[in-house]
Amino acid sequence: MSTTTALRSRHLLGITDLEPGEIELILETAVAMKEIGTRPIKKVPTMRGRTVINLFMEPSTRTRMSFELAEKRLSADTLGMTTAGSSVSKGETLADTARTLEAMAPDMIVLRHASSGAPHQLARICKASIINAGDGMHEHPTQALLDAFTMIEHKRRLAGLRVAIIGDLVHSRVLRSNALLLVKMGAEVRACGPATLLPPGLDRLGVKVSRSMDDALEGADVVMMLRVQHERMHGLFLPSVREYFTLFGLTPTRLERAAKDVIVMHPGPMNRGVEIDSAVADGPWSVILDQVANGIAVRMAVLYLLAGGEEGER
Amino acid sequence: MGLLLKCGHVVDPVAGRNGAFDILIDGDRIARVGRGVPADGADVLELPASFVVTPGLIDMHVHLREPGQEHKETIATGLDSAVAGGFTAVACMPNTDPINDQAAVTQFILKRAREVGLARVYPIGAVSVGSRGQQITEMGDLRAAGCVAFTDDGRPVLTALLMRRALEYASMFDAPVIDHCEDPSLKGDGVAHEGAVAGLLGLRGIPGAAESVMAERDIAMAELTGGRVHIAHMSARQSLRAVRAGKDHGAPVTCEVTPHHFTLTDAALAERGGYDTNLKMNPPLREAVDRDAMIDGLRDGSIDVIATDHAPHHADEKSLEFDRAPFGIVGLETAVSLCFDRLVHPGVIGLPRLVELLSAAPARILGVPGGTLVEGGPADLTILAPDASVTVHASALRSKSRNTPFDGWTFRGAPAATIVGGRVVFVHESGPAALRSRLGPRTPTNSVAPAGAPGHPRH
Questions:
Q1: Which residue from B105, B147, B222, B344 has the fewest beta carbons nearer than 10 Å?
Q2: How many CB pairs lie under 8 A apart between chains A and B?
Q3: Which pairing describes strands B305-306 and B253-257: parallel, antiparallel, or unpaired?
Q4: Among A55, A57, A87, A93, which would you mutate to test the B interface (most chain B Cβ atoms within 10 Å of its Cβ)?
């Protein structure tokens, strides 16, 4: 059990800011939250009277729905605002958007934004708690938390786990948050992807960068495949889907190098036949749908803890 | 009536002066420099050795934004900012709206500058029409109108061929071509130095090589043509290496570095909550090894000039998302303090070298008056207070914009007073009190009225 009983910050901007004890606290709280989702009436009054604004300034389906469901199960009043592009496309600065929302006195703002750092800029202006639901190529902390929760469900631990993360590393906020979290919790993180899609500085995070996918898979307990955007496929990053799948696609044959009880994860949405073979996506190793289900519980835990936990009032 | 400055400490490396001297100013000219100069009826002012008197500082890389972007800066506010920073002259970049690619724009800038008074203005004309990289400008006409150099700053000189022709053509007027070195394809949509910090913050990177490949190209073109090329706001260690090699081979290349590039590194991007858009500039803040290389270049003489790349932007523009906010910071009012605090006091350079970097070299490269105190020359002087402690307050800057990363920083060393053409145009609150009575009237900070408006100082 974690000895940490509360989060230090009122925001969740990234895994960077969390201490291991806080990560444990969120993951333990999520266990109780998951139980709520198994009840016939999947709703508790914990956040009754609290207002949460879901500000999604970049297209998202699963993360937005997952947050909405988590908020509703906690009885929060929720508002959604989905805009295409940034504040600029509306002729409004991010600061103005923040102040406008602030005037509605929300308790929390869940922000998805195409620009790295947008939640950090918002947090400097707003009194509300800011939850980062994915910022540009930077972080996606609740994704990393739900991934960790899923790993623990299947592997009973994080420390010592061998986790291979494979795909478009440079553009991936999922990679950054997962690498930060897993290294903090004592896992061994291996990353592998095309040299054109490799961010500088991964080694400083404590991540082992592998040139070969087979090396990265060797004995892995967890394999996490990252999505590769179609627009990267025919330019200067990558020559073709065909070659990408040959070099970095996850197939049952390839997976034989991993540990016998390996689990395969994907943050979605998947590109079948690009980064992952359907035989793997739908195979016995896949925990991809568990990730989706656990996302709700983990987000409930984050909302609950940022709202002040049992005390309720901040 | 003249003014005799009995200076406890004059530093003028070109004239070989570093010690106590008298400077007699008569009208807008220096009448005499020497020891035991008789007052001959002039007012006498004693300046203790705690003040250092130098030839007027010249900032050869400033964006005054007028015409066209007066919400960021005007010639009036920019020059007010310049004199408050100790600069007696600035060279202004052509990326205004319209771009300074024709004599009419040059003449407008100079007319406004004359109306404002304060610091001298040396316009820099565009290399190519519209800075689009297609057709060279009428450099002869621009030169005749008052342009002292040519650049497409804000953008690189697009092709090697354009750089070749620009150097050849500009050499007819003995004007340098200044280049914002950046390979557009390598820069891409990058917003920060390509390194571990940007990698972890998820910011698109601009590698140092994006700058150095262009610097290498420019040096090759300077060698080919014999035309003078000046590398603007150098930031990458690889560029410095190229400049050193070029100089070793006798290529006509000079370069400048900004105070922020010899002070800050990209690590600042992750500090204090992260993503401060006042740390976003182009070229970007680079790694410690690059910053240290710039300091080495300042120390060993490979870097010729310190220039600010003063780039005012409105707070509304800077309050956008990091990747969408414009590049650039203001620099005129913090440059001298950064030079003292980061270079002079730590012993990187001495005072003569400081004056070389901030006055003599820019005057020589641009071919403009000043850079040394000579009898019969313009009475442009800067008085420095090397030990004054100053705290930067963004809200108190005279520039119309407040986009500085140094808000709240305290430095040792500051400009104490600025004299342009014999007129006292700025005295710092800790500056020589006796000069203050000679200070011309000035409307309150940031409300410098249009020329001709009541109460505006007409110099």
A1: B344
A2: 77
A3: parallel
A4: A93
Give pLDDT tens digits for B184-225. Answer: 999 999 999 999 999 999 999 999 999 999 999 999 999 999
Asked if residue A9 belongs to a domain, the reply is no
DSSP chain A: --S--S-SSS-B--GGG--HHHHHHHHHHHHHHHHHTTSSS----TTTT-EEEEEE-S--SHHHHHHHHHHHHTT-EEEEEE-SS-GGGGT--HHHHHHHHHTT--SEEEEEESSTTHHHHHHHH-SSEEEEEEETTTB-HHHHHHHHHHHHHHHS-STT-EEEEES--TT-HHHHHHHHHHHHTT-EEEEE--GGG--TTTGGGTPEEES-HHHHHTT-SEEEEPP--GGGTTSSS-S-HHHHHHHH-B-HHHHTTS-TT-EEE--S---BTTTB-HHHHTSTTB-HHHHHHHHHHHHHHHHHHHTTGGG---
Residues paired with A77 in a beta bridge? A51
Chain A's closest residue to B192, CA to CA, is A116
Q: Is the dihedral of CA B274, B275, B277, B281 positive or negative?
A: positive
Picking from B201, B316, B321, the nearest residue to A121 by CB comes out as B321
- How many domains are contained in chain A? 2
Query: In this complex, do B323 and A116 lie within 8 Å of one another by their Cβ atoms?
Result: yes
**Helix, strand, coil distribution of chain B in percent, nearest 5:** 30, 25, 45
At B245-294, the pLDDT tens digits run: 999 999 999 999 999 999 999 999 999 889 999 999 999 999 999 999 99
Q: A173 touching B, CB under 8 A?
A: yes
- Condensed to tens digits (0 to 9), the pLDDT of residues A152-188 reads 999 999 999 999 999 999 999 999 999 999 999 999 9
Are residues B200 and A176, on separate chains, in Cβ contact within 8 Å? yes
| Interface touch B319/A94, C-beta < 8 Å | yes
Q: What is the pLDDT of residue A178?
A: 98
How does DSSP classify residue B378?
B
Are A109 and A149 contained in the same domain?
no
Please answer yes or no on whether B199 and A202 come within 8 Å at the CB atom.
yes
Task: Find the helix or strand (DSSP H, E) in which B389 lies.
Answer: strand B381-391
| Fold of the domain built from segment(s) B3-53+377-436 | Urease, subunit C; domain 1 (2.30.40)
Mutation target among B316, B320, B407 for the A interface, most CBs of A within 10 A: B320
Exposed/middle/buried for residue A41 (C-beta within 10 Å: 0-12, 13-18, 19+): exposed
Does residue A244 lie in a domain region?
yes
CATH classification code of B56-366: 3.20.20.140
On whether the pTM is more than 0.90, the answer is yes
Residue ranges making up the domain that contains A232: 141-292
